[in-house]
Design goal:
About 15% of the residues lie in helices and about 25% in strands. The protein has about 180 residues and is an alpha+beta fold. Strands 2, 3, 4 and 5 form a four-stranded antiparallel β-sheet that branches.
Length: about 180
């Protein structure tokens, strides 16, 4: 596990880098007319209670599910595995997905009780790649502090997949990005 002070420093550095990118990069999802007044994204205070190192329980039978996106397109996702963990004594399960079986990363979309209140209504995402989100012992790092809003939260020109109902959580995850617009 990363020492807490290094974890927090890395997290804050990544947040600053994302804010700089959103404010200045030509491919920023922030609409051009909003960039001049863009003062950075809003985040929950870093909270190590939402950082987990977990085994991925890979599904023996990897089913393909279809989900809609914000532009009414249908997308296919492969249910790859699930994470099982506890928050405040409550067991939680999150499904992980891939678009292609050869991908080296996992897509973990979720909604929680903050969705539509403190956070974007459609939910948030975590992207986990083998290089950056695996421990030396092979566990996956599931850190809700790096959860991010889909790009359609910033700009309606993007198409973002909706969170499958199986990843709707009945508790509040007070970590990661908050709503962009109030």
């Amino acid at each position: 596990m990363i020492p807490p002070e290094q974890w927090k420093e890395n997290l804050e550095m990544n947040r600053k880098g994302k804010d700089d990118y959103f404010a200045q990069h030509q491919e920023s999802p922030i609409p051009i007319n909003e960039r001049q007044n863009f003062e950075g994204l809003k985040y929950f205070t870093p909270n190590p209670n939402f950082y987990f190192e977990l085994d991925l329980h890979e599904h023996d039978k990897k089913e393909t599910i279809q989900i809609q996106d914000s532009k009414d397109n249908t997308r296919n996702l492969i249910r790859w595995g699930e994470f099982i963990f506890e928050i405040d004594g409550k067991e939680c399960k999150l499904q992980t997905y891939k678009s292609d079986p050869n991908e080296k990363y996992l897509f973990v979309p979720y909604r929680d009780e903050t969705s539509g209140k403190e956070t974007y209504g459609a939910g948030k995402y975590l992207d986990l790649d083998e290089e950056n989100n695996r421990t030396q012992t092979g566990k996956w790092i599931l850190d809700f502090n790096v959860a991010y809003n889909p790009l359609c939260a910033y700009n309606k020109n993007y198409a973002c997949p909706f969170v499958p109902p199986e990843n709707w959580m009945t508790l509040s995850i007070l970590a990661g990005e908050k709503k962009y617009h109030d």
